Amino acid sequence: MKKIIVPVDFTLHSENALRTAAFFANTYKAEIVVVHMLETSNSVISVSNSYINEQIVFELKLTEKKFKEFLDKPYLKDVTVTPIIKHHKSFSDLHKVAEDEQADLILLSSKGATGLKEIFYGSNTEVVVRNSTIPVLVIKGLPVADTFKKAIFACDFSDDFIEPFKKAKAMADLFNCELQLLYVNTPGAKFRTTREKKDRIARFLEKVGETGNLTVAEVSDFSIEEGILEFAKTNESDLIVMPTHGKHGIEHFLEGSIAEDVVNHALLPVLTVKM
Fold first, then answer.
1. How far does the signal peptide extend, from start to end residue (predicted)?
2. Is 116's pLDDT higher than 50?
3. Considering only CA atoms, which of 252, 235, 243 is closest in space to residue 187?
4. What is the pLDDT of residue 41?
């Protein structure tokens, strides 16, 4: 891991993400690129260009001052930190910054989204997860200050999950973390018999070259999300790894985005990898 992107809005959630990034940066000798999305007020659109320019300069100077204060932290003393200010309306363009910077990971903190906000607006976290082509680590609550020890990777063991599994395995190996595969059997059209599950899992493990090397768990629940979250609690996992496809329906993940739902509702850190 060479470069970590951390989007910030100068809140406590941002600082929790920054603290976590500092821990990983010190562990892997990585650089942190701290990104702030500067929104220009719509109220200046109808006024003169000179006023707009003055407003933008003012907001830029104010943001630079906030950045300097925000990054003046003891835990960043031995870390290479690069601050970037981008004039974007939303976090939907963060993945472009990550690609331009050739980053290995986007790291952010989220309190999740529920109810009407989740249905009609979503959250910045969802937007990042949906659009990012590189792994996204979402933490909840306190910053991460220790290495991950046990992670679960939820999948349906179809061929579509081969590449996401390889990415998940690479990240787990980087974290020196045990990776356990999880299959959630749900009622309805996607329900599978014990024999079907065993055959499907065996074929998948053979294709990825992991026969006998990984632990596979199977649970039954009313939804994939509920099965993942419940298993994570009972299994004492400290990281959930989810494949995400950005709204493209495939196989077992036809109804919406399971990854985004898990990111919103999980109490554990969630790492998403693109399908």
1. none
2. no
3. 252
4. 52
Interval 24-45: pLDDT, tens: 999 999 999 999 987 655 544 4
pLDDT at residue 246, as a whole number: 62
Residue closest to 100 by CA, chosen among 116, 84, 87: 84
34 vs 50: CA distance, rounded Å: 30
CATH 3.40.50.620 assigned to 3-139 = yes
Q: Do residues 118 and 265 lie in contact, with contact meaning Cβ atoms separated by under 8 Å?
A: no
- Left, alpha or beta for 192 (phi > 0: left; psi -120 to 50: alpha)? beta
Question: Which of 2.120.10.30, 3.40.50.620, 3.90.180.10, 3.90.550.10 is the CATH number of 150-274?
Answer: 3.40.50.620
List the domain boundaries for the chain: 3-139, 150-274
**Res. 110: pLDDT tops 50:** yes
Decide: pTM greater than 0.70: yes
CA–CA separation, 129 and 256 (whole Å): 13
Q: Amino acid identity, residue 116?
A: L
* pLDDT tens digits for range 167-201: 999 999 999 999 999 999 998 867 888 898 899 99
Q: Do residues 254 and 154 lie in contact, with contact meaning Cβ atoms separated by under 8 Å?
A: no
